[in-house]
Amino acid sequence: MSNNKIILEGCIKTFKETNEIDLTESEIFEIFSLSQIHKDRNITYENIISSIVDGGNDGGIDSIMVFIDEEFVESIDDLENFNFTNKTSSKFIITQCKKENSFKEGPIDKLITTIPVLFDLERNELALLSRFNSDLVDQALLLIEVWKNTAISGGKIALEYIYTCNASEIVVNNVFEQKIDQLLEISKNCLSTNDVSFSAYSCTELLEFYQKQKSNRLSIEFKDRPLSTDFEDYGIGYIGTVKLANYKAFLKSENGDIRDDLFESNIRHFQGLVDVNKKIKNTIENPSDEDFWWLNNGITIIAEEPKEVGKKLSIENIQIVNGLQTSYSIFNNHNEDQEDQRSVLVKVIINKNKETTDNIIASTNSQNPVSATLLRATEPVQRSLELFFLNEGYYYDRRKNYYKNQGKPATKIFSIQLTAQAIQSIAFDDPHTARSRPTSLLKTENTYKRIFNPNKNFKGYLNSCLIYKKGHNFWLKHQNTTEKNKTSNFKLHIGCLLTKDHFNKVNVSFNEISEIDVNDITQEQFNESISFLSTSIDQYLNDHQGTNLINIAKSKNLLNIYFNN
Predict the structure, then answer these.
(1) Is the dihedral of CA 189, 192, 193, 194 positive or negative?
(2) Of 14, 173, 490, 509, which is most buried, counting CB atoms within 10 Å of its CB?
(3) Is residue 284 predicted with pLDDT exceeding 50?
């Protein structure tokens, strides 16, 4: 065994313990690999888990990720947040993770067979489900929807295959390479794009990913030494102008892309060439006698731990909370010419107080066309929930990846959306809506206020998350493959049924959910719940010919079987 392989085994063990993951070695290798490969992307542990589609009838695919303009897309319901234009760039990543000692041709052979079937637009859900598991079909349908919308709008489409293996190094033969070429050619024809690639990663590359730390400290060089000012004991501010070339350098990551993680996750979508951005683009590309910052409102940055050396300011935990459109426009359109003396106005606010940060975000974006949903994280009930979870030893991720970046256990982090889905499923007996329209739970005002009611016992919010998580963990280890495959789209339903089984009654109150000790939920109760769920699905399929598992998971009618039995 090579040194790299021995060291990586230790790294995976540390990863497992740090994130408190209790799964099989192959499952942990898969999650570890995806986490390291996508370290520089702004995705969460929940996103990684949702992308995994392996199991029976997986067509040789372990994970499918869909990105629009570098933003992870969670569901078809999420697409209403995106505006497809000829500037849209969509990327699909299909991954195979094998804890085997060498790269083999078998996984490639499976893809060669699977891809033409999976991406055949003439096949409907029912046809796909007759061959593939419902998790895979669900992610494939999302990919196809994004693919179609991007193609119709004239945007760019890219597909990347990734094959990770526990081999000491990448060693493949000519036949393997020929099959890769065959897979790429098939994929180009299927998706009508030439931007198709294949990447292989062994222990050596995975170890490099693991050792590469995502930097939280960056330096920004001002044109002149920035003006420093403080406000009593509440914080320090720096104000100055930064040359356009230097600001672009500040935004650029090691691989040449824009540092997406610098932008506040809730308001980070670039609006493309809307009117205001066309004007910014024109200003950048056509220098005049007017400085850029004279015509632009500038950038607002919130950060911590400042170190000032001359004209350079080094800062940590950076959030660009205002000026996203300006930042993207500079990054996309400036030619990096250091002779260009034009500059952008930059304000850096040094602050650790979360409430103050929220107020700054809300205030600096009050005049921008940002929907109320995108600013939910700043609301008092969300701040209170974060504090409550923290006091209970868990982490409520109001700010995407805030706690992940602090190294907190991934299995103890809950996003706003997952919490809303858990509440909707377990407290309101509505797993089908939580499954089919997760985005609407936060966007629809009445639904949002019903779910996030500050007068409710916050223990019920946490317990709903923990019940869902416990049910999901039981499901991951379930040995009955028939039941497991059948219920893979019903994990929210499992949480709902598990609660009812625990109390042995249909109507469970929010107060009862608040008082439950989740440790008392047993394996036997899960077995009863998943067996009942499986039987209910069979009954529904028998009574409703022509339907399929994905549609059933989104249908209210299945609940009638639950409650009438």
Answers:
(1) positive
(2) 490
(3) yes
Predicted pLDDT of residue 562: 61
Question: Does residue 490 contact residue 553 with C-beta atoms inside 8 Å?
Answer: yes
Give the global pTM.
Answer: 0.78
Structure tokens at 309: 């050396």
> So what's the pLDDT on residue 265?
41
| Residues forming a β-bridge with 240 | 346
Q: Is residue 142 exposed (0-12), middle (13-18) or buried (19+ Cβ within 10 Å)?
A: buried
Which tokens go with 209? 């990913």
pLDDT greater than 90 at residue 182: yes
Contact 375, 365 (CB under 8 A): yes
Q: What are phi and psi of 66, to 5 degrees?
A: -120, 130
Q: Strand, coil or helix: what is 230?
A: strand
Instruction: Return the biggest CA–CA distance within the chain.
Output: 77
Q: What are phi and psi of 394, to 5 degrees?
A: -125, 175
| Residue 359 pLDDT greater than 90, yes or no | no
Burial 362-389 (b: 16+ CB within 10 A, else e): eebbeeeebeebbbbbbbebbbebbebb
Identify which of 520, 521, 456 has the alpha carbon closest to the alpha carbon of residue 494.
Answer: 521
Strand pairing of 343-350 and 299-309? parallel
Q: What are phi and psi of 304, to 5 degrees?
A: -135, 170
Q: Which helix (H) or strand (E) holds 220?
A: strand 217-221
pLDDT attached to residue 373: 45
Give Cβ neighbours of residue 199 (< 8 Å, ≥ 6 apart). 160, 161, 162, 163
